[in-house]
């Protein structure tokens, strides 16, 4: 194929962009970059009843946050604009009329009540899925059943109508999907979908095909939920005379609940307390809120890496990929067919890996900001040192301050359980001796020096350091566990350390 690849992400601005949509955008982005093609974004807003203000901006910001912004979009139009379907409204009718002319579509004048009556009739006759189709259309009010004059009169009178596709009665529709291979559907299972609505807007189906054609889209990479619509789309390409340049299809596997039972939903995520949206969202109409990966502390690199692996894998053991490496390794052939489990622990694991790759200065700056939000202060240098000893122990940047408060705030209370088990005469003796050692020490108080002095104190008192270590930590931090203690000592400094030990010796009593 020597045609330039052009792919598109075509979200509807009906609320926060679901993480599955972000994955679709990512795969489109990766494929475009891999093939030297173009990645477009088209806003599919023909369903104006479902339009939500702010949703488009949300999509734009989410993709920018992840570094996968489209090259052509409503915000950066290329030659195929406009990039919002509502602004393309005047373009669609001609194609619907063309279909009518060729006998592949028809006007339908049925009212909502008449449609409902049809459904009731069919349900009473035990028809499993009552539809407007090649059989039922013969009993409805449309340009196939009404006389030409009557149709003309109704149109002239301004009677509301829709335009429906005329699905052939008995035909096999075949389509090739790059992930699933050949998909064959019998036309008797398809219904006569509406193409133009009574408000003059096209439906998703017509607009999608017309736009993909006019925007010279070569590959349609989208979620599996659109696979059932694909045969209809193939027929539309055929009837519009565009089959030769019809895009290739790739339908991405579903995202499943963590236990693999069914489709991942917002409710599952809320119940289990993890995000399935890229950023926080508040619906301006309903006030409904959704938690975002960004605000939860996920790094964009981690989210990208996590999403890339939801349905794709490189075929070997490698798991950590930068965006450029993903581009390099990506191929549609390596996307799986079956649904993929959404395992938030994997996302956390990725976050930990990428967090560790941040420099101490970067994480220190983050920590400093958090500390200042709490009304405290710290030098950049000290914040970087704390970040250094904490970064292997946390999942999210904000965990650093949460888990290192003791570095700035001396304990006033002590972990009761550890105190009752570990605070004993040995600990008191070693710590008392340690304070003396500290007082006489005048060199740089490095972690090694802190350790050497403590060993000396243990030796002098004749107790084993290993046995009192947890009590030592308790005295200085108030806690039973934490980062490398000698590094903690060194960052706290001699004076602060001595002050804390003194307080602990005065406050903690030995329990028997
Ligand atoms: N507007 C559709 C959606 O919201 C796009 C489907 C497609 O890519 O064809 O997912």
From TrEMBL:
Q: Where is the Glutamyl/glutaminyl-tRNA synthetase class Ib catalytic domain?
A: 5-349
For this chain the motif 'KMSKS' region maps to: 263-267
Q: Which InterPro entries does this one have?
A: aa-tRNA-synth_I_cd-bd, aa-tRNA-synth_I_codon-bd_sub2, aa-tRNA-synth_I_CS, aa_tRNA-synth_I_cd-bd_sf, Glu-tRNA-ligase_bac/mito, Glu/Gln-tRNA-synth, Glu/Gln-tRNA-synth_Ib_cat-dom, GluQ/Sye
**Which Pfam families does the UniProt record give?**
Anticodon_2, tRNA-synt_1c
**Span of the annotated motif 'HIGH' region:** 11-21
Choose any GO biological process term that the UniProt entry carries and state it.
glutamyl-tRNA aminoacylation
Q: Which domain of life is it from?
A: Bacteria
Main site of residence? cytoplasm
> Keywords assigned by UniProt?
Aminoacyl-tRNA synthetase, ATP-binding, Cytoplasm, Ligase, Nucleotide-binding, Protein biosynthesis
Q: What is its EC number?
A: 6.1.1.17
Q: Where does ATP bind?
A: 266
Q: Which family does it belong to?
A: Belongs to the class-I aminoacyl-tRNA synthetase family. Glutamate--tRNA ligase type 1 subfamily.
Report the protein's function.
Catalyzes the attachment of glutamate to tRNA(Glu) in a two-step reaction: glutamate is first activated by ATP to form Glu-AMP and then transferred to the acceptor end of tRNA(Glu).
Instruction: Please give the name of this protein.
Output: Glutamate--tRNA ligase
């Amino acid at each position: 194929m020597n045609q330039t690849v052009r792919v598109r992400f075509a979200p509807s601005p009906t609320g926060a962009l679901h993480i599955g949509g972000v994955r679709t955008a990512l795969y489109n982005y990766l494929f475009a970059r891999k093939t030297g093609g173009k990645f477009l974004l088209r806003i599919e807003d023909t369903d104006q009843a479902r339009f939500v203000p702010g949703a488009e901006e949300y999509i734009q910001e989410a993709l920018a946050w992840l570094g996968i912004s489209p090259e052509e979009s409503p915000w950066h139009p290329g030659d195929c604009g406009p990039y919002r379907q509502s602004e393309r409204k005047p373009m669609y009718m001609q194609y619907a009329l063309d279909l009518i002319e060729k006998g592949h579509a028809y006007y339908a004048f049925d009212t909502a009540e008449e449609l409902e009556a049809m459904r009731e009739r069919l349900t009473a006759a035990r028809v499993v899925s009552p539809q407007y189709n090649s059989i039922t259309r013969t009993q409805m009010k449309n340009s196939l059943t009404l006389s030409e004059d009557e149709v003309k009169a109704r149109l002239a009178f301004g009677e509301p109508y829709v335009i429906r596709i005329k699905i052939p009665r008995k035909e096999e529709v075949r389509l090739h999907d790059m992930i699933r291979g050949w998909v064959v559907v019998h036309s008797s299972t398809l219904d006569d979908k509406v193409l133009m609505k009574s408000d003059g807007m096209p439906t998703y189906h017509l607009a999608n095909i017309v736009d993909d054609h006019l925007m010279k889209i070569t590959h349609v990479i989208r979620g599996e939920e659109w696979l059932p619509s694909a045969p209809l789309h193939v027929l539309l390409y055929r009837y519009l005379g565009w089959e030769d340049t019809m895009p290739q299809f790739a339908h991405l596997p579903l995202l499943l609940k963590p236990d693999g039972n069914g489709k991942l939903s917002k409710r599952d995520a809320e119940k289990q307390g993890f995000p399935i949206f890229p950023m926080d969202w508040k619906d301006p109409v309903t006030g409904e809120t959704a938690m975002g990966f960004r605000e939860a502390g996920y790094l964009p690199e981690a989210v990208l890496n996590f999403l890339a692996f939801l349905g794709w894998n490189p075929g070997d053991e490698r798991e950590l990929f930068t965006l450029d490496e993903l581009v390099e390794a990506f191929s549609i052939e390596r996307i799986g067919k079956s649904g993929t489990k959404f395992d938030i622990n994997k996302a956390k694991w990725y976050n930990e890996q990428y967090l560790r790759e941040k420099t101490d200065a970067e994480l220190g700056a983050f920590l400093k900001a958090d500390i200042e939000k709490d009304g405290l202060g710290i030098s950049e240098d000290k914040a970087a040192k704390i970040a250094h000893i904490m970064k292997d122990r946390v999942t999210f940047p904000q965990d650093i301050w949460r888990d290192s408060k003791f570095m700035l705030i001396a304990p006033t209370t002590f972990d009761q359980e550890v105190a009752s088990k570990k605070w004993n005469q040995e600990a008191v003796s070693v710590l008392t001796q340690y304070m003396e050692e500290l007082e006489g020490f005048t060199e740089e108080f490095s972690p090694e020096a802190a350790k050497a002095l403590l060993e000396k104190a243990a030796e002098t008192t004749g107790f084993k350091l290993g046995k009192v270590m947890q009590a030592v930590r308790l005295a200085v931090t108030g806690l039973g566990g934490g980062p490398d203690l000698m590094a903690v000592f060194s960052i706290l400094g001699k004076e602060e350390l001595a002050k804390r030990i003194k307080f602990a010796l005065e406050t903690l009593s030995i329990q028997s």
